[in-house]
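User: What would this chain look like folded?
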Amino acid sequence: MTRETYSLLENYMLSCMDDSAHDKEHVYRVLYHALEIAKTQEDVDYDVLIASCLLHDVGRKEQFENPALCHAAVGSEKAFAFLTAHGFAAEYAGRVRHCIQTHRYRENNPPVSLEAKILFDADKLDVSGAMGIARTLIYKGIISEPLYSLLPDGTVSDGETDAAPSFFQEYKYKLEHIYDRFYTEKAASLAEERRQAAVDFYKSLYREAASSYQAGQDTLAGLLTDS
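Assistant: Here's the prediction, encoded as C-alpha cells.
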C-alpha cells in the first residue's frame, strides 16, 4: 500500500470517528494488533488488511444514533462505497467489505477470509485485559449505564444473571468469555497474557461495591427507629 493510499483511508476514518470508546486510537491499536498477528500467518493480503482495520468502525456513528443499526453492516457498505468512488476495484472493495461485515461477533456471520479473521481477532484483542475494562467503562458512561444493578434484597449483583445493562452485566455477558473466541493462536496468546488484569479489576470492584452496601445497610438499620 502506498503512503498516499494509506493517508486517503486514514483521513476518511478520522472524519467518521465520534465515539471516545471507539476512537482513532482504538483503530490504530486494532491495526497494530492485526499487523502483529499477520506476522504469524502466510499469504496475508496487507492491502486488504490495512484498509479493513482502518475502516472497520466507520459505521459507529450511525449505530450510536440508531441502536437498531449494526455498525459492522453500515460501515462495510460505507467502506465499499468510499473505495469504489475513489477508483478501487470492486473486487478489492468487496474483500474489505467482507472483513468489516464480519468483525463483530455474530454466530450467523463469521469471518471467512484470512484477513477477516485477523481483523476479528485484532478487534477482540482490544476488548481484553485492562484496555477492555477501560473502554467498556468509557462506553457505559457515554450511554449513561450504571456500574452495577441491585438484587431484590438491596445487595449488589455480580452481573451474572442480570437482564438490565450495567458494567458488571457486560463483564459477565461478554468480557469474561472472549478469550476462547479467537481464530489465530497469536491473538489467543496475547489475550491470555492480559486476562488476569481484567479478572482482578472486576473482582476488586465487585468486592468494594458489595462490601460498602453490606456494611452501610447494617449500620443504617441500627440507626433507624420506628418512631
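The CA atoms of residues 37 and 101 lie 20 Å apart. If you want, I can go into more detail on any region.
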